[in-house]
Each structure stands twice: as structure tokens, then as C-alpha cells.
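look at this fold:
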Amino acid sequence: MPERRIRVLIAKPGLDGHDRGAKVIARALRDAGMEVIYTGLRQTSEMIVNAAVQEDVDAVGLSVLSGAHMHYFREVVDGLREQGAQDVLVFGGGIVPDQDLVELRDMGVGRIFTPGTSTAEVVEYVREATAERERVDSSS
């Protein structure tokens, strides 16, 4: 039986117009064999949640450089829970101060990748984290 492809939504919430990092990650995940949906710039949290549910993704990656990371991650995590999609992995990248990482993890964000992270590290994390979530789901 062929291995199921991991589906990942990459999104840029808010008014931040710098999407080079998001596109680099999207391409790295695609080149690693994952199915990637990139929403484009200036998405609202509601648009991201709706796209994630509609596309039945395994993971949502948010790119936030604007400093509004706490706001957008909370809205997306809460929105996924409200839609019954709490099993979707949420991860992200951008300019995020170290002191915010614990709070983000506590709200349900899997991991935040900051500048200098290799694309291989992101790919490995998404593979392992989505596989772990499938193991947990199948055992419960």
C-alpha cells in the first residue's frame, strides 16, 4: 500500500507582505514529497482555518514576521479547535522572541522555526510530528 502524502497548508496571516520564507518552506516540503497548499499573502485567521478544514490538511504552517504572532497563532489554533480540527498540527516560523515560545507551545503550537533554521529540519519535524499524531489517533 503506497504511503499517504502529508498535506500541509502554508499561510501568511495579516498585512505582512514578506513571503520569501513561506515560499522557501513550501517548496522544501513539496520537494520532500508532501502536498503543499500555499494560501498567499494577507490571509485572515478565519480564511486560514477554513482552507485547512476544506483541504483536510495534516498541518498548518504560519509565517509571521509582523510581531503579531501571538494573535494569529491563537486565532488559528482556536479556530481549528472550533471546527473540530484539533488534530491538525500547527507550526510556524518568523521573527518570534524566545520568551514567547513557551506560551505558543502551551496554546497548542507544535514548533516555531526562527531565522537560520534549515529547511531539512522543518521537513523532518513535519514528517515526525504528523506521524506521531497519526499513531496517537489510531491508538485511541
